[in-house]
Design goal:
Chain lengths: 294, 358, 234
């Protein structure tokens, strides 16, 4: 029983990270109809920025994180304005390939600037555990889960209750009508990319302490994030978060209680999830099935 | 045959002749590189049928190449691989494993085409992406090891008496002695040249097949599906048939290419067909030009040579990737229609000039 | 000086030229109608003004040339465009639609909501309803209300009667008339239903194949049988 709770808690933490990155993917997809294959590498790159601020510039950890988030936002906005906007009307394939190009650039840049050495990354949370009723709960896990939850809540409030949040939602739903009421849709989309990049940066910062910092660290996470987004519904923010948490907990439990699924099969299981969901209900658990008007 | 088609056939024969003469002018090493161009060309032809013609995006064609490659490897090798009581040994003539590999891959592709009917656009891309990422893991899976050789891989030409061109190193002078091979009466001095001729013969044959297949009603139906499924269906095009057929054909081509790749590298393991291969295949099709045929050669050249060229720009760690990525984005921004699109634009420009002159 | 003036405006969709030199003027406080058959270029005229389509030629609003301004910029000048098909945000609530209408204005919108509710009383009671679940007529009224939220100088109204029953259409035109009388709102309305448009407008332009074929005060056009038969279909 103790094992069960421990796995659930650990699953919620890893699931929270998947959720954050999945939410970033969904945000961008809802706003610009693009799947950003480079979301993971952008997250990794911004995590390196945090690392270098702490290691090479002696910044206090929390200050470094704050600066990193601002940088991430700027990076997202900048990318949308320079690289994504020109291909707004191009085919899906063109956009897929451009984001693949971004994957190469960020991955290469990280190796170029900081070398591919595997590095330790400081964790914002203490390395302790709480013992409650015989169950050892990692403070890192709890912290991770709460941070992501808080971030998601803040974003939700932002979208629901602020004027810009309203404009952002409108731009994603109906860009033409939005322009007619005076919304600068182009900049709204850019802000969407910025927010997604911030989510990615948070995911990266929370991942790095446990998997260690290296240019390839977010690649597996990205695949889990895809699985989560597909599971929850690629256009549903709530689905992305729910999907992420479900996937995190599910993978941990399957790994613990189902015999032949060892650590090496975690990724294929996630991929299997993607395939099954896509075949049975492409819109995901919480997405809307799109009916095409003839 | 129409006159324009006769002209095209003539051009094709000229091109084929040029391809066969090329090894005389290039180094042995380059011949190997161009052999790889031929392999990619075949894979791109197939992927183009799927993506360029019916508009189904696949980020997983490397997996079909893997199926083809492993089929050939298992059939050729003498490693003692077993499947359900049957031990594989190399009774079969090597060359025939190539179309067989294509067939196996083609059937797999055709079968995948059925569930794929339910997926569109990005969803299909994600599904094929998932398969390609999972493939190395599946190959490595312990339960399949006796059959796939597991992580250790399969050597194609290890054992005695294999009919393969051999290169041995003189134990005293350390020079490479090659035994000349005869193909159709031609004596080819090295393995690389042999490989070149093998790959390009297959490539030219498959190109001709693709051209014949796509020029008539089939091609029009496929293109109609890409442009508007709804309109195509209303015009009587059987969507299910054509779409699954497209998957099967493209997988067949990929299987053949994968088989040639196995022969080229003489060794396969789970990492011979990584996810990056699938991604680069898609890149190659887009750079060559969706829906085009011979411009795909440029796509193949792009994916074979750009990584090498990027390394020449800078060998610093990570730099080649950055160069590749930047060029990729620039190409997409400047020529979203690929080389074929560029050629079409040039054609329009020059024809306009011609008319103005009149 | 007219509030809005178009001089030799051209617009195209790819190779197809939709407007081939259109000139018209709308005075402050007027209701002007743009009439004509399908494909004559009526909607494109409105789109040229709001900047939704690329155009050439001169468009001057309130003394300012519009140049190459896009819709976001034109909206800020005080032009509210209610497009063909209403352009409501179907997945948002009535209230959110209104909020978006007031986007270019700062500050609280409660007064404005009260103001538009005076013209459309049902809105006040259904603020939380999903806009997509409203009837066609209600959506048209919501689109109008949304346009009013920004206190526009001029309203561009594209085919308000589209898909609506005649009685609903009458109601909408009555409200437009009322807005014009009470608030001095200048209106440029595009309509296929020439009869009702001519009742409400004081001046009208009839487009044919991207050009102005006939124009004049509404009563004259309405009385002229040959004009009615050739251009207006009744």
């Amino acid at each position: 029983m103790a094992e069960f709770f421990q796995q659930v808690v650990a699953g919620l933490a890893s699931g929270a990270i998947f959720a954050a990155l999945a939410l970033a993917l969904v945000l961008i997809h809802r706003a610009t109809g693009v799947i950003n294959f480079a979301q993971g590498e952008m997250a990794m790159f911004t995590t390196y920025i945090a690392w270098t601020l702490i290691e090479n510039h002696g910044l206090n950890m929390w200050l470094a994180f704050a600066v990193t988030l601002v940088f991430a936002f700027g990076l997202g906005v900048g990318l949308q304005r320079t690289v994504i906007r020109p291909i707004e009307r191009a085919s899906i394939l063109t956009t897929v390939i451009v984001t693949i190009g971004l994957v190469l650039i960020f991955n290469g840049l990280a190796g170029l600037i900081w070398s591919a050495e595997v590095r330790a990354f400081p964790s914002p949370f203490p390395n302790d555990t709480w013992v409650i009723g015989g169950v050892a709960i990692s403070q890192q896990d709890v912290g991770t889960f709460l941070v992501v939850l808080a971030l998601v809540a803040i974003l939700w409030a932002f979208f629901q209750f602020t004027k810009i949040g309203l404009a952002l939602r409108a731009s994603a739903l109906n860009p033409d009508a939005s322009r007619l009421v005076g919304v600068r849709v182009g900049w709204m989309l850019a802000i969407g990319w910025g927010l997604a990049a911030v989510l990615g940066a948070v995911a990266g910062i929370l991942t790095a302490p446990t998997v260690f910092l290296d240019p390839n660290m977010m690649q597996a996470v990205l695949i889990y994030a895809f699985a989560a987004a597909v599971l929850g519904g690629i256009d549903s923010p709530f689905g992305a978060v729910a999907g992420g948490l479900m996937l995190g907990v599910g993978l941990n439990l399957i790994g613990t209680y189902v015999d032949f699924v060892g650590a090496s099969l975690r990724l294929p299981v996630a991929l299997l999830v993607i395939l099954v969901v896509l075949l049975v209900k492409p819109a995901g658990l919480f997405g809307k099935t799109v009916t095409r008007r003839v | 045959m129409k006159r324009s088609e006769l002209i095209r056939a003539g051009v094709f024969l000229l091109a084929a002749a040029a391809v066969f003469l090329l090894p005389r002018f290039i180094s042995d090493f380059r011949a190997q590189e161009f052999a790889y161009v031929g392999i990619y060309f075949i894979a791109l032809l197939g992927l183009n049928v799927l993506t360029g013609f019916t508009g189904q995006i696949s980020l997983g064609h490397g997996a079909f190449m893997a199926i083809g490659g492993y089929t050939t490897a298992i059939l050729i090798s003498d490693q003692g691989l077993k499947l359900g009581g049957h031990t594989f040994s190399s009774d079969m003539k090597d060359i025939w494993t190539i179309p067989l590999a294509g067939l196996v891959a083609g059937i797999a592709g055709f079968l995948f085409g059925f569930p794929a009917l339910r997926l569109t656009g990005l969803y299909l891309a994600l599904a094929t992406f998932a398969i390609a990422v999972a493939m190395p893991g599946l190959i490595k899976y312990d339960r399949f090891e006796t059959f796939t050789g597991g992580g250790g891989g399969i050597n194609l030409f290890e054992s005695e008496g294999r009919t393969r061109p051999t290169e041995t190193t003189d134990p005293i002078t350390f020079e490479t002695i090659s035994e000349p091979i005869k193909i159709l009466g031609l004596e080819v001095p090295t393995f690389n040249e042999w490989l070149y001729y093998l790959c390009w013969t297959v490539a030219l044959v498959m190109f001709a097949v693709a051209w014949l297949l796509l020029r008539g009603r089939t091609g029009r139906s496929l293109r109609a599906i890409r442009d508007s499924e709804l309109a195509a269906a209303s015009s009587g095009v059987n969507l299910a048939t054509y779409k699954t057929l497209a998957f099967g054909i493209s997988a067949f081509y990929a299987g053949v290419a994968g088989s040639l790749l196995a022969i080229a590298t003489t060794f396969v393991n789970p990492d011979t067909y990584p996810i990056t291969l699938s991604i680069f295949l898609l890149v190659g099709v887009v750079v060559g030009g969706l829906g085009s045929l011979w411009p795909l050669v440029f796509g193949a050249i792009f994916i074979q040579f750009l990584p090498l060229w990027a390394q020449e720009v800078s060998k610093a760690q990570g730099a080649p990737a950055v160069v590749y990525g930047v060029i990729l984005i620039l190409v997409m921004l400047a020529m979203p229609g690929g080389v074929a699109g560029l050629l079409r634009r040039l054609q329009v420009l020059t024809s306009r000039g011609y008319h103005r002159g009149r | 000086m007219a509030l809005l003036e178009l001089r030799g405006v051209e617009a195209r969709y790819g190779p197809v030229r939709a407007l081939d030199g259109v000139s018209l003027a709308v005075e402050q406080g007027q209701i002007v109608a743009v009439l004509g058959a399908n494909g004559a270029g009526k909607t494109t005229t409105l789109r040229s003004i709001s900047g939704t389509v690329k155009r050439s030629g001169q468009i001057v609003f309130d003394g300012k040339p519009l140049g190459r301004r896009g819709p976001e910029s034109v909206a800020r000048l005080g032009v509210a465009h209610v497009p063909e098909g209403r352009g409501t945000f179907a997945e948002m609530s009535v209230e959110e639609n209104l909020k978006l209408g007031a986007y270019v204005k700062r500050g609280a919108i409660d007064d404005d909501v009260a103001r538009v509710s005076a013209y459309f009383p049902w809105i006040a009671t259904r603020l939380d309803q999903h806009a997509g679940t409203l009837s066609g007529g209600e959506q048209q009224m919501l689109a109008l209300a949304r346009a009013l939220m920004s206190h526009p100088r001029m309203l561009l109204l594209d085919e308000p009667s589209l898909g609506l029953a005649p009685i609903v259409t009458r109601e909408i035109f009555r409200i437009v008339s009322e807005l014009n009388e009470k608030e001095g709102l200048t209106v440029l309305v595009v309509e296929q239903n020439a009869a009702i448009a001519l009742e409400v407008a004081s001046y009208a332009y009839v487009l044919e194949v991207g050009k102005v074929a006939v124009s004049g005060p509404s009563e004259e056009l309405a009385r002229n049988e040959s004009v009615r038969k050739s251009y207006l279909g009744y």
